[in-house]
Write a structure and sequence with these properties.
The structure holds 2 protein chains of 2 kinds. Chain A is mainly α. Helix content of chain A is about 55%, strand content about 0%. Chain A is globular. In chain B, helix 3 (about 35-45) packs across helix 7. The chains are: A mainly alpha, B alpha+beta. At the A-B interface, helix 1, helix 2, helix 4, strand 1 and helix 7 of A face strand 8, strand 9, helix 19 and helix 20 of B. Strand 1 of chain A pairs parallel with strand 8 (about 415-420) of chain B.
Chain lengths: ~140, ~550
């Protein structure tokens, strides 16, 4: 039964949401936008191919330099380099991906560094503001 | 054999420097290549049948229902859930946490367990997790103005008038239609090669058409009386769209190119035609009267937009008489003359006449819809060295150059992602904090900065990018622009003058939306499916002819 599922049971994700999260995480780690996007594409391939998750955290930890900058221009034959090439070749992806809770949590923490907290000003000026919506 | 010189020359495509400006994109109209139109034609050609295997809605209108339909050999089901929403929770803003109704488009026909799962999760929307069987996630709020009045009226035997229907245009308004993997729903690649689901946003459009039908059924159920067919057909489905969809056009440049290229290629084919056969002339005449009614029936409280509508209304009869009357259309190259004259009168009239020209040319252009969805782009950097790039930037991206991006008015706004709902927002750089977290929608400024930083002596691009990693995004943008002429929006999206609502109108017009009703520069309401066939009307004819649908009279 769904209600009895333990709270920390392995969660499955779509490739698109992990791509978006990983892209934001790489930006949060301090990488430029284009390299961050290419890392996002490589991350979903890396997970899809069952390669070592620790490769992913290692290159994020190397910010602001290291493979995330280098592989964007020239991916090597390392497992993560292969994931970059898989992304460039648009290698097919499975229906679900299963990152560890640890990796997912780390990506979320890094991605959160790119989010701007709401202020009263941003709320009142934001889309949809200043009008009764129930008409 | 004819000499090549005797063959009709294809008309030139409209210049990207004209088409891809915000001021032009912000005047776009739906066309027969719009995704909703393409989907409905497909449903019509397949003679699709919508069924409603489950209707578990109580007397107050709360509960759930399941609709199923076959498209391209696959079954899809809409699970619709209607809940009691306290008035204080009703808001169109994406930061809402509760809605009148929630929806999942399900892959196949759901079992009772799957229905129970969706009934439990869909009302929570972003706060829940979904599975790869859930293809599209959406929610909608009632148009309170119409809903209560219609239910009461119908109960007492009073049919709503078309004028009342037209004042709003829909019974409910969706405030998000999520696809492609959001919150765990299916990635698009899982169904993108299925017949009928290949086109951009095709399953999103299927979902909104099915939701529209649910809104009709729910109202009739609550009122205990049927709505007249003509009223139902004029009740579309509303949508409130904010900044959430604007960055998509920037982050999917190749897709944007393919959408615009299909439309511009279609226009070029239409312009290459010689004379117009009688049938087409009569078709145009019929549509000019429909346009007149549509403009008459379209209004908005937004002053700028209302003035634009009134300007179109004012120009239309004279324009039709001069360029689209039977006499005018009998002349050679009549549509060319009309298009040129419309362009001279402004973006709104030009885009309207473009859409009308395409509308009468289905035989010549409908095949172009098949090539609109490809989003693939080469990732490799094609420029050998910085000298190539220095040559390419002025050639393909001159619009980004010659602007002083340090001037306050040229960088007054910044795009960012809000912590609250992880949604795109637009901030005022000089009034709000955290512009350091700006999202990379400042493509024009980036291209200009790249151009300024290129060395005088050519060096390999890879070397340049190792020392200037921040410029990779701009290099990729120039690369895209060099290959795909309609890929980049040729405006400065951080300027004080940038109106995101122009981006929204362009994208929504490509979806097939009409009756644009902007609520500010940041968000707009629109109507989808107004005049679209009802489920028992899915014939090729009915599915083809509902562009800018407008009843003969609102009386």
């Amino acid at each position: 039964m769904v209600a009895c599922r333990p709270r920390h049971a392995a969660v499955s994700y779509s490739a698109a949401e992990l791509y978006a999260l990983a892209t934001r995480a790489a930006r949060g780690a301090g990488f430029p936008a284009a390299q961050a996007g290419l890392f996002g594409g490589a991350l979903v391939q890396h997970l899809s191919q069952g390669r070592d998750e620790s490769d992913l955290m290692r290159v994020l930890d190397a910010a602001p330099s290291g493979p995330i900058l280098d592989y964007a221009l020239n991916a090597d034959a390392s497992p993560l380099g292969q994931s970059y090439q898989d992304a460039a070749n648009r290698t097919g992806l499975p229906a679900r991906l299963h990152p560890s809770a640890e990796l997912h949590g780390a990506l979320e923490r890094l991605a959160a560094k790119t989010y701007v907290p709401a202020t009263e000003a941003s709320r009142s000026a934001g889309a949809g503001a200043g009008l009764l919506d129930n008409d | 054999m004819k000499d090549a010189f005797d063959l009709p020359q294809p008309a030139a495509l409209r210049a990207p420097s004209h088409v891809m400006r915000l001021a032009q994109m912000g005047q776009m109209f739906p066309t027969r290549l719009s995704f909703l139109r393409v989907l409905l034609r497909r449903l019509g050609s397949e003679g699709a049948k919508l069924t409603r295997p489950i209707w578990a809605i109580d007397a107050r209108g709360f509960g759930h229902a399941v609709y199923s339909i076959d498209l391209g050999g696959f079954s899809y089901s809409l699970v619709a859930i209607s809940t009691d929403l306290p008035p204080e929770k009703r808001t169109d803003r994406v930061i809402a946490e509760a809605w009148d109704t929630a929806y999942v488009l399900y892959d196949g026909v759901p079992s009772s367990d799957e229905i129970a799962r969706i009934v439990a999760t869909a009302p929570k929307q972003e706060a829940a997790r979904f599975t790869e069987r859930d293809l599209i996630l959406s929610r909608a709020n009632k148009s309170v103005r119409l809903w209560a009045r219609f239910v009461e009226g119908l109960r007492q035997g009073h049919m709503p008038s078309l004028a009342e229907v037209n004042a709003v245009g829909y019974l409910m308004r969706t405030t998000a239609v999520y696809g492609n993997g959001k919150f765990g729903i299916a990635d698009r690649h899982l169904f993108a090669d299925r017949p009928g689901a290949t086109g951009s946003f095709s399953l999103e459009m299927l979902t909104v058409w099915m939701i529209r039908n649910f809104t009709h059924d729910l109202l009739e159920h609550e009122a205990g009386a049927p709505l007249p067919r003509e009223i139902k057909r004029h009740l579309g489905i509303g949508n409130a769209t904010g900044l959430g969809m604007a960055p998509f056009l920037v982050s999917h440049p190749v897709l944007l190119n393919n959408w615009m290229m299909a439309r511009e290629t279609a226009l070029s084919r239409v312009r290459s035609g010689d004379g117009l056969p009688d049938s087409k002339r009569l078709h145009i005449e019929r549509l000019t009267r429909r346009v007149e009614r549509h403009l008459e029936h379209w209004s908005t409280p937004d002053q700028v937009a209302q003035e634009e509508i009134e300007d179109l209304r004012g120009h239309w009869p004279t324009f039709v008489e001069q360029y689209l009357s039977q006499d005018a259309l009998a002349k050679p190259h009549a549509l060319n003359a009309a298009l040129d004259a419309a362009k001279a009168k402004g973006a709104g009239l030009e885009e309207l006449v473009v859409a009308l020209s395409l509308e009468v040319s289905g035989d010549e252009i409908d095949d172009l819809a098949d090539g609109m969805h490809d989003a693939s782009a080469p990732l490799a950097v094609p420029f050998g060295d910085t000298a190539d790039l220095a040559h390419a930037i002025p050639e393909h991206c001159s619009w980004a150059l010659g602007i002083d991006y340090a001037a306050k008015s040229n960088c007054a706004q910044f795009w960012y992602v809000s912590e609250e709902k992880l949604e795109p927002r637009l901030g005022q750089r000089f009034d709000e904090p955290r512009a350091d977290l700006e999202s990379p929608l400042d493509i024009a400024r980036r291209i200009s900065a790249l151009y300024a930083d290129l060395p005088n002596q050519a060096e390999p691009l890879s070397e340049f990018l190792l020392s200037h990693p921040d410029h990779l995004l701009a290099v990729m943008a120039v690369n895209t622009a060099a290959r795909y002429p309609y890929a980049l929006i040729q405006d400065n999206l951080i300027a004080a003058t940038c109106r995101p609502v122009d981006l929204l109108r362009a994208k929504l017009a490509m979806f097939g939306a009409a009756k644009f009703d902007p609520k500010s520069n940041l968000w707009t309401r629109i109507t989808l499916c107004q005049g679209a066939p009802l489920p028992d009307e899915l014939t090729p004819e009915a599915c083809d002819d509902w562009w800018l649908a407008a009843p003969d009279t609102l009386q």
